[in-house]
Specification:
- The strands form 2 sheets. Strands 3, 4, 5, 6, 7, 8, 9, 10 and 11 form a 9-stranded mixed sheet that branches. A two-stranded parallel sheet has the order 1-2.
- Helix 8 (about 205-220) crosses helix 9, helix 9 packs parallel to helix 16 (about 365-385) and helix 12 crosses helix 13 (about 320-325).
- The protein is built from 16 helices and 11 strands.
- Helix content is about 45%, strand content about 15%.
- The chain has about 375 residues and is of the alpha/beta class.
- The protein folds into 2 domains: about 5-25 and about 40-165 and about 300-350, Periplasmic binding protein-like II (D-Maltodextrin-Binding Protein, domain 2), CATH 3.40.190; about 165-295 and about 355-385, Periplasmic binding protein-like II (D-Maltodextrin-Binding Protein, domain 2, 3-Layer(aba) Sandwich).
Length: about 375
């Protein structure tokens, strides 16, 4: 099963019949893997499984279900296709347009299911990874490259880890925005009426960080109180008629539905390549402040395909997988480790924006991110949208 539906369709299905029942319609049940004493011990250890043991066990399972991985996001299309070719394992791409909150709900709703509708792994904003650990959704597993992942970008116990990170900026359609904004506050200018989006921060990590980035700028670069400032700013955006209630993508940018949007650097740069000048894509990282943020992976504690899920993680976090992220302009979590070992090709490093673009990038703590996410998600609909 490989199908694409929008986030809105996903939520409608969940509301009507419950995510588990709706997703079950996509395919039948697969037989649950039979664990032997030896394989159970491998899984229970939480440690990296040697590839000579892991690969055949994963190939015996034969397939893997991933969720919320758009093919043009951080080069996931190449990541998936190369994995399938290299290991001869089918990949079910479930709901590519789902958000981080939807991913957690899909795991909750499909608990106990052994079919293809139950995600084996997730790719979520880092605070959702923390929330999932607290809820007991993840299995413990430390990939082979664990020591090369910086502290702060992984759970000390091994329940989640960052795969890549990006920095937030402003993406725009040059044909429709001849005078682009230079900082987040500029987005309130009357000339940007019905032009600007940050998506829905009750569902997606990028949207939360976009609201927060505006607040941090308006708060003079200070974290404390910035979430409140961000909500106030976007309430003004709605009142002024500048906000567009559509999430940005290369398609909405090209069609003129979202002429301006807050976007991770790797997504905006990938859009530039995808659209090939039709229209021409502009992207700036404000000199005032820009917010950096990682995305994290974790394994479903009830993964129906536990060895395929672990092989997928080893693949993404190994040197080859990390360089695929870099080709998609995302900074791999193990970038510093790989650079020290001289395994980052010069031509890939040269495609990244100049280092000075990142001089004002701010990387908040997990506690700060969690508090901001909670406040923004809880106050968006009432204080911004007026619902």
């Amino acid at each position: 099963m490989s199908q694409k539906i929008s986030r809105r369709q996903f939520l409608q299905l969940s509301a009507m019949v419950g995510a588990s029942a709706a997703l079950a319609a996509c395919g039948g049940k697969a037989p649950a893997p039979v664990a032997t004493e030896d394989t159970a011990a491998l899984l229970a250890s939480g440690n990296s499984i040697p590839m000579d043991k892991l690969v055949p066990l994963a190939q015996k399972e034969g397939n893997l279900t991933v969720i919320a991985l758009p093919r043009d996001w951080a080069n996931y299309g190449e990541m998936i296709d190369t994995f399938k070719s290299k290991y001869k394992i089918a990949v079910n791409e479930l709901f590519p347009d789902a958000g981080s909150a939807d991913e957690l709900e899909a795991i909750r709703s499909n608990k106990g299911s052994t079919g293809p509708q139950n995600p084996d792994t997730v790719d979520v904003g880092i605070t959702y990874a923390v929330d999932g650990k607290k809820e007991g959704l993840w299995a413990k597993y430390k990939v082979a490259g664990w020591d090369g992942i910086p502290e702060g970008l992984k759970d000390a116990e091994g329940f989640w880890w960052a795969e890549y990170f990006g920095v937030l900026g402003i993406e725009y359609n040059k044909a429709l925005v001849p005078n682009p904004p230079e900082k987040f506050e500029d987005l309130l200018k009357p000339e940007y009426k019905n032009m600007v989006t940050t998506g829905d921060p009750t569902k997606g990590n990028e949207s939360v960080m976009g609201v927060w980035a505006c607040g941090i700028e308006l708060n003079g670069g200070k974290i404390e109180g910035a979430a409140e400032k961000g909500i106030e700013f976007w309430a003004e955006m709605v009142k002024a008629g500048n906000q567009v209630p559509v999430s940005i993508s290369s398609g909405t940018l090209a069609k003129g539905e979202t002429p301006i949007g807050l976007r991770w650097d790797y997504l905006a740069l990938a859009d530039r390549d995808t659209l090939k000048g039709n229209p021409e894509v502009g992207f700036i990282i404000p000199k005032t402040v820009s917010l950096g943020g990682p995305y994290a992976s974790a394994i479903n504690v009830g993964s129906p395909r536990p060895f395929a899920s672990r092989l997928w993680e080893e693949w993404m976090m190994g040197d080859e997988g990390q360089l695929i992220f870099l080709k998609g302009y995302a900074h791999p979590a193990r970038f510093a480790d790989m650079s020290k070992r001289g395994v980052v090709p010069a031509d890939l490093a040269a495609k990244l924006p100049p280092a000075e673009y990142y001089e004002n990038a701010l990387f908040p703590t997990l506690e700060q991110i969690g508090a901001a996410k909670k406040y923004i998600a809880e106050n968006w609909r009432q204080k911004v949208i007026g619902q």
